[in-house]
Structure formats: C-alpha cells, structure tokens
Amino acid sequence: MNEIRNTRSPQSIAIIGCGNMGLTYARSFRQYGLCTAEQLLLVEKSAEQRAQPELHQLGQLTQGPGERLRHCQIVVLAVKPQDFAALAPELSPYLQPDQVLLSIMAGITMSRISDSLQQPLIVRAMPNLPARIGMGMTAFAALPEVDRGHLHMAETLLNTTGRAVFLEDESLLDAVTAVSGSGPAYFFYFVQEMVQAAVEMGLDEATARVLVKQTMLGSYHLLNQSEEGPAELIRSVSSRGGTTEAAFLAFSEGRLGEVLRNGLQRAESRARELSGAL
Ligand SMILES: NC(=O)c1ccc[n+]([C@@H]2O[C@H](COP(=O)([O-])OP(=O)(O)OC[C@H]3O[C@@H](n4cnc5c(N)ncnc54)[C@H](OP(=O)(O)O)[C@@H]3O)[C@@H](O)[C@H]2O)c1
Q1: pLDDT digit string (tens) for 12-34?
Q2: Taking the domains of the chain in order of start, what are their residue ranges?
Q3: Which residues does ligand 1 sit against, CB inside 6 Å?
Q4: Which long-range contacts (CB under 8 A, 24 or more apart) does 172-175 make?
Q5: Ligand 1 pocket: which of 18, 23, 28, 45 to mutate (most atoms <8 Å of CB)?
Q6: Using one digit for the tens of pLDDT, what is the confidence trace for 219-240?
C-alpha cells in the first residue's frame, strides 16, 4: 500500500453519496492511507447500497448527515446532479465555513453549490470511469476563496484515483467532460469496432480481443514513451501503397477525423446545455 499522507492531507473526510464514484473515492482514500476508517464518514441514503459490507469496513456509515459532519475538513459531494436540490437543505445545518466542499457532480456550477449551501470553499472536479482502478483523469477548478493549502488538499485526494489537473477557468469543465469524461466510451467503441472487423475477417472473438487490446496497450505506451507525436508515429506504421495507407484512405473518404471532432463538440455543447438546465 502506498503511503502518501502528508501535511496537506485532511484529518477527517466525509463522502455524501456512496454509489459508484463515492465508493471509488472511499476505497482510494483508504488505500492510500489518507484517513482511517474512524476518520472517514460515509453518508448514503440507499438502504441497498448501505447493506454492502465493504462500506462498513471503509468508514463510519450513516443514512443522513449529522453532527459528525461538522468535524470533517473536506466534504465530497458524490450524489447524482438531480439529487443535489434535495440534498442541500439536509446538509446545510451541519456545514462549517472552513470546510472544503469537493463536488464531482457533473454540470452543477460552483456558484450554484456555494449559493445553495451558503459555503465559500468550493472545488469542482470532473473525474472519469478509470478512477475505479486508480487510472482516472480528473480536471478540477475552484472558487477564488479556496487557498493554495485547500487546493493541495483537494488535489491530494483526487490524485488517489489517478492524475488530476487544475483549471483556472471553470467553464472549460464542459470541454473536459467531452474529452476525458466521455473519452473512455469513445475508446471502448473503437475496441468494439476493431474486434468486430477482426471477427468478420475470420478470427475467433477471443483472439480478436487479445489482438486489439494488446495493440491499444502497446500503442499507448509507445506514444507515452516516445519523443514523437501521433502524426509521426502514424507515418512510422505507414508505407506508400501499403495496408495502413489503404485503411487511412477509407477513413478519409468517410471523414472519420471530422466525425470524431464533431462528436466531441456535440458532447461539449450537451454538457453546457445540461449544466444550464440543472
Ligand atoms: N460514474 C461516472 O463515471 C462519473 C464520472 C464523472 C462524474 N460523475 C458524477 O459522480 C456523481 C455520482 O455518480 P455515481 O455514478 O456514483 O451515482 P450513483 O451510483 O447513483 O451514486 C449516488 C449515490 O448517492 C445516493 N444519494 C442520493 N441522494 C442522497 C442523499 N441526499 N444523501 C446521501 N446519499 C444520497 C444515491 O442513493 P439512491 O440510489 O437511493 O438515490 C446513490 O447511492 C454524479 O453527480 C455524476 O455526475 C460520475
């Protein structure tokens, strides 16, 4: 187990909403030794979710916010965005002005959180699904009242699920949602289509999956370790009149690059639209 406790680690953390993401954070905070089970307050409304033995081992599990919440330095908001309106009045009586509220709720702006809860210290983060295995990508922004120490504390927490980058401009979180938030789904789609093509060429599905997944893994590491960017690496695989060039000809006839960029732009507009509607 890695030990990353340091002076920037909070002593006591609350997680409100322990579904997919809340549970991921609870596991990660404990795994990295950021808090003990006594220092982790888990607030979960769903009886079904509360019946999970793992939640009882990870922290102090309760059905609703209560007095213990006052003693937490950082409060992670991990309920669905549509549940925030109902949560706010339940939470407000127990919040203290020096607590940092770290929201991962998609689309809910920091000013909305600050106004609803009458709290000044808000950090808003957009994680993605690989956070579940500690390989997530998170971008986060903060209100100006959040000082450097608070930001480091939030970053330390977010880093337990992968990498985290700070954005000065909160509105860029819509682009982040389109790129890294939805990104894993685009990747899974590529894998699915490549496996399908391989099967249509006569490979059995298990072999097709190994070929595609290992190709993705190897290509990722090569890109990551290489001085060259994607364009140069594409050239390294291609030769004039060869197979890769034949594939790229079909991609360009189908305007694949343009289709992809359009898809991401549409995801970004949808993120903005949803944020306005919440
Ligand atoms: N999943 C992702 O990949 C992902 C990525 C980026 C951001 N996010 C954000 O992460 C947040 C959580 O997503 P999720 O997938 O973890 O949702 P989830 O699995 O539905 O978990 C939310 C949990 O919060 C509980 N809850 C609702 N209201 C509550 C309250 N007042 N007090 C305590 N608990 C309450 C829910 O119980 P009930 O089921 O009974 O309502 C549910 O168990 C969302 O805001 C989402 O936008 C998720």
Answers
A1: 999 999 999 999 999 999 999 99
A2: 13-168, 183-277
A3: 16-17, 19-22, 43-46, 49, 78-81, 83, 86-87, 90, 104-106, 126-129, 181
A4: 172/139, 172/141, 173/124, 173/126, 173/139, 173/141, 173/271, 174/268, 174/271, 174/272, 174/275, 175/268
A5: 45
A6: 999 999 999 999 999 999 999 9
What do you get for the CA distance between the two ends of the chain, in Å?
39
How much distance in Å is there from the Cα of 47 to the middle of ligand 1? 14
Q: Which fold has domain 13-168?
A: Rossmann fold (3.40.50)
Instruction: Please tell me the distance between residue 197's alpha carbon and the centre of ligand 1 in angstroms.
Output: 36
pLDDT by 10-residue block (mean), the chain, 278 residues: 45 95 97 96 97 96 95 96 95 96 95 96 97 97 96 96 97 96 98 98 98 98 97 96 96 98 96 82
Full-model pTM: 0.91
How far apart are the C-alpha atoms of 122 and 113, rounded to whole Å?
Answer: 8
Nearest-CA residue for atom 39 of ligand 1? 46
Provide CATH code, domain 183-277: 1.10.3730.10
